[in-house]
Amino acid sequence: MKIVCACGSGLGSSLMVSMRVKEVLAELGVDAQVEHTDISSLAFANPDLCVLGKDVAMTPEAQRIGEDKVISLDRILDKEEIREKLKAKLGL
Q1: Smallest Cα–Cα separation from 6: which of 90, 89, 16?
Q2: Average pLDDT, the chain
Q3: Distances (CA, A) of 33 to 8, 58, 68
Q4: N or C terminus of the chain: which is more exposed, having fewer CB within 10 Å?
């Protein structure tokens, strides 16, 4: 499974979110490849799942990925929110 975290530039918040996602996946025992990128490159990353801040999740680029593949975060560094939403999307 490939999970991609994205933000406007692909450097700041997407990197921090990807680090949190990796922590949560390790705690859940889920093996996945986690990357971060800028929103304009998101479609080229060919993700199985995207973890995005709610502002980025509303962009046309994120909408093209498909609602079923997008996790929209209200608080991008909230580990509990990330855990809850990953568990729900992954059926855990």
Answers
A1: 16
A2: 93
A3: 21, 24, 18
A4: C
48-76 tens-digit pLDDT: 999 999 999 999 999 999 889 999 999 99
Structure tokens at 55: 């502002």
Residues 6+ apart with CB under 8 A from 27: 83
pTM above 0.85, yes or no: yes
Residue 30 backbone zone (phi > 0: left; psi -120 to 50: alpha; other: beta): beta
pLDDT in tens, 7-25: 987 678 999 999 999 999 9
Distance CA 75, CA 65 (A): 21
